[in-house]
């Protein structure tokens, strides 16, 4: 009879095993240091074996988040080690003199590598540190989180950011929400730093340089997020059907996770509505061009909302389906997402009963000039220090490293001078 272990129990056992191994490893390490000190007659120095700067990415699509920071660190001669779960991560081919990119696999093997990592500073956009399989390493001094969109920091599943030491943010409302969560959960205050949004700075600079593109027929971009509350989860192919009836060119760009978590649905929709002169399915890694040649975006809670409106200065049409917030951090705050208040200022809501009038809605939202004023208002709320994001991130990382290594030198001296 085979022994079955459910995933929850398996994760718990894996965590216990990691804890036992970690404790043993740490004890042996300290014994070795003291022995080395004794043999050398008290003259041995403990070297800093930690990697100064580590970036961890759980997916190749986040290279755009990190590359501006890597570029700035490279310019300053600071070596960065980039650990990725994606075998085809663009970072692995990036030609930066001071970048060491490495594919570490995925699953338990990769998490074990992370859980025993030795580093001074770790920067990541991955939530759930010390909640699921990714545990804080005893040999990492400081964990820093950076969001991958200009929106609510409370849109992560519960406890997603609780155990980071610092978060790099772009708006005061994000800081207020994190402080409220810390108070409710009796957590120590994290270092919250408004740095801006490096990847949006790069996109904005590129758009300013390349311009709005050539004249084209009116084009609608449908870019839903994934899950039951996303557009396809609620409306299925009905919205594609309605868009095709407008006669406009339609680009469908699902969230990359949809092709993994909703594969059956994606296969069904792509078979029913194949590529044609009027309809195209877009899976480009770089979304710059598809955003540039679209006149209006239809989406739900996808982070692409803010790229489209704040960089390309265009309106949106959004759906607002019933969303179960009980699994998200915002549930603790008993308030709406900031995004809920931002959306009506950026465009028009699409309801199921108005689906047959979608052409009229598209025309109205594109031609209504009042949205431009509100876009500027939203930009000020969620995109601090425009154009300075990478510089400010690098400033913070380097300053924190220098602070930590100074403290490490004191701590290591205390270890080797302890009486036997």
Overview of this structure, please?
The chain is of the alpha/beta class and 420 residues long. It has 16 helices and 13 strands. The N and C termini lie far apart (52 Å). The longest helix has 33 residues, at 7-39. Helix 4 (172-185) links the parallel strand 6 and strand 7 (191-194). Strands 3-2-1-4-5-6-7 form a 7-stranded parallel beta sheet. It has 2 domains: 28-197 and 387-416, 3-Deoxy-D-manno-octulosonic-acid transferase, N-terminal domain (Rossmann fold, 3-Layer(aba) Sandwich), CATH 3.40.50; 202-382, Glycogen Phosphorylase B (Rossmann fold). The protein has helices at residues 7-39, 63-75, 108-115, 172-185, 198-210, 231-235, 238-244, 258-261, 263-272, 288-292, 304-312, 330-333, 338-346, 358-367, 370-382, 389-416; strands at residues 51-57, 80-84, 99-103, 119-124, 140-145, 166-169, 191-194, 219-222, 249-252, 279-281, 296-299, 316-318, 347-349. Residues 1-12 and 36-47 have low confidence and may be disordered.
